[in-house]
């Protein structure tokens, strides 16, 4: 299963990879929303972890575009971010985001949520 983590923090992408890769997932990475869309167009993605605040294209715009793509309309997407703004959380929900995890994340919580969203 392919998981794409879209985050401008290389450290955060590495932490997600170290948490989930041992469980057998292939972790793909992008450093902004536009790069994330490019990766998603080139590979089949089963789950997305997306930061909200990023340069070039933020997470809200990225998710909005992903959800318009037929192949990703029903693919689970989780915001993994430092943002606590209620308005942005509501925007995420209206876009169809499946979850919101606060950074720094709990590795066990991330593993559990990943398995649940992938139906494992």
Task: Give a structural overview.
The chain has helices at 10-20, 33-42, 59-68, 86-95, 107-118, and strands at residues 2-6, 26-30, 47-50, 77-81, 99-102. It is of the alpha/beta class and 120 residues long. A 5-stranded parallel beta sheet has the order 2-1-3-4-5, with helices on both faces. Helix 2 (33-42) packs parallel to helix 3 (59-68). It starts with a strand and ends with a helix. The mean pLDDT is 94.
Outline:
This protein has 120 residues and is of the alpha/beta class.
List its traits.
alpha/beta, five-stranded parallel sheet, 120 residues
Tell me the strand percentage band: 15-25%
Strand order of the largest sheet: 2-1-3-4-5
- Counting H and I runs of at least 4 residues, what is the number of helices? 5
Strand elements, count: 5
What structural category do the secondary elements indicate? alpha/beta
**Mean pLDDT rating:** 94
Straight-line N-to-C gap: 11 Å
Low-pLDDT runs: none
What's the SSE pattern? EHEHEHEHEH
Q: Roughly how much helix do the residues carry, as a percent range?
A: 40-55%
> How many strands, what sense, and barrel or not for the largest sheet?
5 strands, parallel
Principal-axes shape call: globular
Write the layout of secondary structure elements.
Elements (H helix, E strand, L loop, with lengths): L1 E5 L3 H11 L5 E5 L2 H10 L4 E4 L8 H10 L8 E5 L4 H10 L3 E4 L4 H12 L2
Parallel strand pairs: 1-2, 1-3, 3-4, 4-5
């Amino acid at each position: 299963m392919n998981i794409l983590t879209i985050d401008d923090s290389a450290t955060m992408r590495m932490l997600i990879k170290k948490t989930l890769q041992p469980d057998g997932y292939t972790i793909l990475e992008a450093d902004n929303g536009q790069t994330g869309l490019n990766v998603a167009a080139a590979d089949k993605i089963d789950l997305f972890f997306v930061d909200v605040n990023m340069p070039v294209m933020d997470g809200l715009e990225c998710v909005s575009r992903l959800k318009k793509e037929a192949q990703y309309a029903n693919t689970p997407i989780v915001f993994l971010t430092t943002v606590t703004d209620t308005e942005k959380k509501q925007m995420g929900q209206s876009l169809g985001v499946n979850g919101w995890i606060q950074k720094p994340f709990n590795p066990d919580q991330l593993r559990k949520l990943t398995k649940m969203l992938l139906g494992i």
